[in-house]
Amino acid sequence: MLNEFWANASTGYKVLVFSAMGLIAAGVILSIAANTSGNQGLAMASLGVIGLGLVLHVTGLVIRGQQIRKSYKK
């Protein structure tokens, strides 16, 4: 079912998923760089980037759940 869902998923959903993964990865990289250099401002900014990525991830889960529920009703 997972392969079928991804193959039939909308472009908007795919962009949302990859954006979330990219933001989380960028936030982790920023966090590592900030903590190795001792830059507190960058460390706090990295938490915001990770948080935004997580919000997009949860949004993607909600969209996927709605699409699966619609497919069951058909």
Automatic annotation (TrEMBL):
UniProt entry keywords in alphabetical sequence: Membrane, Transmembrane, Transmembrane helix
InterPro entries (alphabetical): DUF3188 (IPR021524)
Protein origin, superkingdom: Bacteria
Ranges annotated as spanning the membrane: 12-34, 40-63
Keyword presence, Transmembrane: yes
Protein name as catalogued: DUF3188 domain-containing protein
Organism expressing this protein natively: Paenarthrobacter ureafaciens
